[in-house]
Amino acid sequence: MAAAASSTSAAEITRRLTGICGPTFARFAGAADEVAGRAARWVAVPGGPAAAAQVLRLAARHDLTVVPRGAGTKIDWGAAPARVDIMLDTGRLAGIGHQPAGSPVVEIGAGTPLRAVQATLERTGRRLPLDPPSPGATLGGVLAADEAGPLRHRHGTACEQLVGLRWLDADGELVGAGVGAAEVPAGPAPVGLDVGRLLCGSQGGLGVLVSATLRVQPVPAGRVWVVRPVWTPLEVHDLVRTVLADRLDPAAIELDLPATGPLPRRPMPPAEAAARAAHPSMAGRLRPFPPARGGAGALAVLLEGGPADVAERADRLVTLLGGETNAGHTAPHWWRRYPFAPGDTALRIEVPIHDLHAAVYALRDAAGTPVPVRGSAGLGVVHAALPGSLPADRVASILAAVRGVLLARRGRCVVVAAPPAVRQAVELWGEPAVIPRLRAAKEHLDPHRRLAPGRLPGGL
To answer: What is the pLDDT of residues 314-373, one digit of tens each?
Structure first.
């Protein structure tokens, strides 16, 4: 693929990128410009969709690969691409489309920080029902990683909330799906939103997101968190069943099970500790908290709605859960925080809720000790962390054991992020059933494998 690029000097590519993006928005990549450990050659920050399309056309002419980057909060997630020639920074593909007062939807530029979107909507008493744990993430980054927070229990992920999407394919053609697709200029006909949703979780491997249209809703007048200490996965199983059976309409049901006997970690050199703390994925994020007293975990239920209604439901839930349950207007300190940090092997476990406790026990048994687990107990989607110091073959054996248990329960375990040695030694996705659809989408949208090659499951 580099044959055409070799006939054009690196300085000439830089000059052309500068002509497209502007003198301060194109450069040779630096040490921090990498994707899952794979270094980029150039960084381009186009000023809008038309400029981004020109970058993609330039890449096509010179057989260069392109990997989109938002805020970089999840740049170490997933598989490393085979090559990163141009890192296309979406920071200038930002903004919130003008909508009539009371509109049920809003169009948002992919490079817009999600917290900026929420702050803007809150001025008119509205919000996106999205709360991913990456504080500095852009909307495009959330979609590209299919990231979701506690509110997914009631509202689904950002990808499930999409009503419209616009993106650029590998040839720089603007493609539209759903609401707003009719506004796409002459070119490919608008496609179905089901195709657009394949971009969710694709890590930039199917297209460069330009904008997304999502539903908005009024900010709830009342919010209460009801929290109960828990000690075992089986106890969590019984409590979640109790909450769901009582029809309390929770907005979220979250679990925090800390590791009371953590796997040993190697001493971390000061330089490595400083590098981890400065990683983009840690922007605005606190380190994992120590376990609660006695090693107890917690089950937290968020109730939203009118103040009087929320208060009545909270009282019912406190009585229902018993024990040391309490209610308050402040989220637990661990709410919307991953149990892992950069350098750890981060796992996402998805399993029917009635089998979540079996999955957690399987992980503990395979690791030989409790492993920190946190996430949406009401949906059976949780994250766990293994120390980055564990040898790759040890991680592989833990994964094999857990996946064997999950296979019989229609569940799966995905490696979200991992050190390079682990990434190379294990299958990150297990056996995803969507590979045939992804392969078809890749062939249609990026037949020459120029967009983040190797980032998708199956090495696509």
So the answer is: 999 999 999 899 999 999 999 999 999 989 999 999 999 999 999 999 999 999 988 999
- Phi/psi for 252 (5° steps) reads -160, 150
Question: How buried is residue 414: exposed, middle or buried, by Cβ count under 10 Å (0-12/13-18/19+)?
Answer: buried
Which three-class secondary structure state does DSSP give residue 155?
Answer: helix
Neighbouring C-beta atoms of residue 431, cutoff 10 Å: 11
**CB hemisphere CA count around 85 (13 angstroms):** 24
Neighbours of 386 (CB within 10 A): 25
The pTM of the full predicted model, rounded to 2 decimals, is: 0.88
Half-sphere exposure of 402 (CA within 13 A, CB side): 31
Burial class of 44 by CB neighbour count within 10 A (0 to 12, 13 to 18, 19+): buried
Please tell me the distance from the alpha carbon of residue 147 to that of residue 135, in angstroms, as a whole number. Answer: 12
Beta-carbon neighbour count of residue 96 at 10 Å?
16
- SS3 label, residue 133: coil
Quote the CA–CA distance of 262 and 339 in Å, as a whole number.
12
CA–CA separation, 111 vs 139, rounded Å?
A: 6
C-alpha count within 13 angstroms, C-beta hemisphere, residue 49: 18
Write the DSSP symbol of residue 79: P
As a whole number of angstroms, the distance between CA 264 and CA 262 comes to 6
* Residue from 119, 155, 156 nearest 135 by CA: 119
Radius of gyration, alpha carbons of the chain = 22
**Cα 213 vs. chain centroid, distance in angstroms?**
18
Residue-wise pLDDT tens digits, 155-198: 999 999 999 999 999 999 999 888 765 555 544 444 678 888 88
SS3 68: strand
Distance of alpha carbon 320 from alpha carbon 391, whole angstroms: 44
Nearest to 265 by CA among 121, 371, 411, 119: 371
**Element of type H or E holding 235:** helix 233-245
Helix axes 233-245, 356-367, angle to 10 degrees: 170
For 8-33, write each residue's pLDDT tens digit.
Answer: 789 999 999 999 999 999 999 999 99
